[in-house]
Amino acid sequence: MLLQLKNISKWVQSGGQKVFLLKDINFWVNEGDFISIMGPSGSGKSTLLNIIGMLDNANEGSYTFLDESVLSLKEKHRANLYKQYIGFVFQAYHLIDELTVKENLEMPLLYKKYGASERKALVADMLDRFNIVGKKDLFPSQLSGGQQQLVGVARALIASPKLILADEPTGNLNSKQGEEIMDIFTQLNKEGVTIIQVTHSEKNMNYGSRVINLLDGEIV
Amino acid sequence: MFKNHLKIAWRSLKKQPFFTFLNTFGLAVGMAGGLLISLFIYDELSFDNMFTDADRIYRIDVENKNGGEINRYASVAPLLGPTLHRDYSQIEMVTRFRNSNSKLIRRNDVQQNVKEDHVIGVDTTFFDMFGLELLVGDTQTALKDANTLILTKTAAEKHFGLNDALGQHLLVDNEEVYTVTGVIEDMPKNSFLRNHTVFISMASFDDAESIRWSNWNFPTFIKLIPNANIESLQTPLSTIYETYMIPWIQTFNPGYTIEDFRERRKTTGNYMKWSTIALPDIHLYSNDIEDELSPNSDIQNVYILSFIGIFLILLACVNFMNLSTAHSLKRAKEVGIRKTLGSDRLGLIRQFLTEAGLVSFVSLLLAIVIGVVFLPFFNELSGKAISIPFGSPFFWLVLIFATILLGLFSGSYPAFFLSRFMPVKVLKGGGESSVGGGKIRNSLVVFQFAISVFLIISTLVVFQQLEFIQNKDLGFQKDQVLILEDTDAAGNQLMAFKQEVKQLGQVKQASLSSFLPTPSARSTITFFAEGDSLSNGKIFGKWKVDHDYVSTLDMEIIAGRDFDRQFTTDSTAIILNESAVAMFDIEPNQAIGMRITNDFAPRDKGNMTFFTVIGVIKNFHFESLRNNINAMSLSLGSNSNRMVVKLNAGDFSKTISSIEDIWNAIAPGQPFNYYFMDDSFNETYKAEQRLGRIFITFTILSILIACLGLFGLAAFNAEKRTKEIGVRKVLGASINQITYKLTIDFLKLVGVAILISMPLGWYAMNRWLEDFSYRIEIGWQVFALAAFLAIIISIVTVSYQSIKAAVVNPIKSLRTE
């Protein structure tokens, strides 16, 4: 088992009342799963994903990731944990505008203190794999949305994470570009990478092996 | 990683040319100001440190209270130095100087005189005392004999070649022959001897061995033996009066005992106090003192400038912080991404500090360029000849270290602020609400404007005081008064010259005197009222003038009469000013007919010379308005090296050339030196005018920096509120309403800044004004004007951005989201 959420709740205080964003969430993820989180706007999909990605904390419950109790970890440990095992893909790509494709790909490796030659090799490998060698010196603004998301996925993958968290990865793409990305996810999943995606689209949902439906912060 | 930091810093700076420009330029202006001010302060603090053993050399000063007046002199009696040296073993060496006037100097075989303004007598120990070497000549013998002198290199080259000077003869003031016994390197620009060019042997002065303890004409320096403590001279100095002076007074006043003198001092409150000042302290800590060898500066100016320098740099740093954090909206996303990719906070802090460091180094380059360009202007402003020491490794080390420090400091808050962003929030695109930091930014704006308004207030007060000085009734007329220097070079033709000048149609009146209300000769003498004992002397000025003096300078006689050629007895007549009359505790009317003397002869011997008081003159200012008007007197005398000429209004240059023609006919080969009295008067207030100019310059700089910051913030604010503005416009808001809304927020901050700076400005400037005996009151108008200026400047700065944002078509601004 890769991770497990038990009785996770998150709320905000509003006018003296608790407004639940997530309420009593329980689920687990095995290595090699491809999970889709579905639900209408405001149902808590992104919040759940952020908690899984350790970018956000739950108010209640327990979260175990590779046998570590995440919620009780210190900030620094937690950062090390997700640095090592998790890759993120965003709807709005979130590439760094000031860096070229190549440099964007290199970024996570820098933070993980890879040596220069290793970085070079891994970046070249990724560029090759995603067929974007010709674009390596371009800046994000010079790419189409689909190409930017390709770079985003490549960046998430470059440090070989166990888990990829994708928040509506095709939300800003047209359907052809979206299909390409989803095909890549399927391929990755076959190679053993665990994927959790948040999505609106039924079509994308079908790429996954398991679906979690959220409504008003609760799994239905 | 560092390379990556640098790269992204460089690219993000390049991507925002406008903000980068505001940031770099603001910082560069602050740094350039700080650089120039630091060089100035360094120069001020370096004074007289170049002399060997400067830490063991002290000057002896004396403070004299007589009647209501306290006078301080940087010179003492000729006997004091040698006597202390004889009696106290901790003194290793003594060197006396002898103040002297400017001299006309020429070679025997040349007609044309050269005027040397700073001629001074020195003891033979001069070289040992200050560790000086002669370029040519022997320090052991150079100043031994009477009528010998040494010249600085520059002075020597005016008459001879450097190597030909030794043994040559020079004619001083057309009468005395001196032998050149040495040539010395020009005195350092930052030394108390910087202006002096001719050093005459002490043996040439008759009074050098005088036993008169009241003859205070000798600036005296002592050097202590190594490791001696200056405190050990406290007691010797405090007993000078009783140990040396009283025995001397008793020689011509045998009846008095020490007890009598003590009693006398106790009842009158009069005293003489000797003290020492360390050589390196003279330049900055010795002021309000007469007989200085060179004009000094004041530590207060160093403080004021340090504050201004620190303010400037702080302002620039604050700008940097403000612009960087305001701008962080754009950087927030990057922070979020980096965090999700695994960067910890420290890494981000490092990155932003790198960026700040990069900006400060680019600013440094710009600052050096600005510094080089404005150095001549700054030198004129400060009256210095500073150069930027590009060749000095120490300079670069300090500069680079300071730049790094500056980068770290100004980058610290933005780094802290930016690295705090939570990725969940910023990546969601929450926009402005997630950025925050507004309160701190606002306080920083308040801080900047508070400083600017404070400087505006200070500038206004300094200029008002200057205005006040310039227009104050001085008790004499300084306008249209021409002063001719060195007129004694005309010898016995002087009177003829004066007569011819007086006959010129453009000349109203002319008078001969070395003594002027503007800087010129001064002489203070002890006077006694008839019948007063020797221990009851009054020390005040004695100016030798001629019959036309009072009328030439339009002074006012308030009792008695002016000198009159009808009365031959006027050769022993004297006119006192109000302060002098007050010293005798009488009214001006009672003074007329009073007889006074400056004779030290025993009182029972008869045949003393008396002056009869024939008039009392209204007090006029002959020193800086910093001081009260001292007591002085006018009496008739000849041998004048200045002529005062009152001109009628008209073409002055024509009149001057007519006078020069007369001069050249009467005294061929003698230099014709002249200046206008009001120029000389203004010289007295050079320090204040300089301060005024410095204030106005740096006020403008600080306002400039503050405005850059405000401009940037306004731009940011408008950008941040684009959507809000669009919505408001769609809902019917007018351009005016929106402009007002965007501007008023900033004006509130400026308002708070004004409120903070007013009491500070009031307090600081009152402290400054305390130095003037004659000063203005700070009125509310100053504050009103300062506030008005600050508000207008900030409205102009902000409104450009506000209007720009307000006129945008809402369709456009709403689409940007």
Largest beta sheet of chain A, briefly? Answer: 6 strands, mixed
The CATH superfamily of chain A turns out to be P-loop containing nucleotide triphosphate hydrolases
Alpha carbon gyration radius of chain B: 34 Å
Largest sheet of chain B: 13 strands, mixed
* The CATH top-level class label of chain A: Alpha Beta
- Report mean pLDDT of chain B, rounded to a whole number: 86
Secondary structure layout plus pairing:
The complex is a heterodimer of chains A (220) and B (817).
Chain A: E1 3-14, E2 17-29, E3 34-38, H1 45-52, E4 60-65, E5 68-69, H2 75-85, E6 86-89, H3 101-111, H4 116-129, H5 145-157, E7 163-167, H6 175-190, E8 194-198, H7 202-205, E9 210-215, E10 218-219
Parallel strand pairs in A: 3-8, 3-9, 6-7, 7-8
Antiparallel strand pairs in A: 1-2, 1-4, 4-5, 9-10
Chain B: H1 2-15, H2 17-45, E1 57-66, E2 69-73, H3 80-87, E3 91-99, E4 103-107, E5 114-116, E6 119-122, H4 126-130, E7 134-137, E8 148-152, H5 153-159, E9 169-172, E10 176-184, E11 198-201, E12 220-224, H6 234-238, H7 240-252, H8 258-268, E13 271-278, H9 282-285, H10 299-326, H11 328-340, H12 345-382, H13 393-418, H14 423-427, H15 438-471, E14 481-485, H16 494-503, E15 507-512, E16 524-529, E17 538-545, H17 549-552, E18 557-560, E19 573-577, H18 578-583, H19 588-591, E20 595-597, E21 611-617, E22 632-636, E23 642-647, H20 652-666, E24 673-676, H21 677-684, H22 686-720, H23 722-730, H24 735-769, H25 780-807, H26 810-815
Parallel strand pairs in B: 6-11, 8-10, 17-22, 19-21
Antiparallel strand pairs in B: 1-2, 1-12, 1-13, 3-6, 3-12, 4-5, 4-9, 7-10, 8-11, 9-10, 14-23, 14-24, 15-23, 16-17, 16-20, 18-21, 19-22, 20-21
Helix pairs in contact in B: 1-12, 2-10, 2-12, 2-22, 10-13, 10-15, 10-22, 12-13, 15-22, 15-24, 15-25, 16-20, 22-25, 24-25
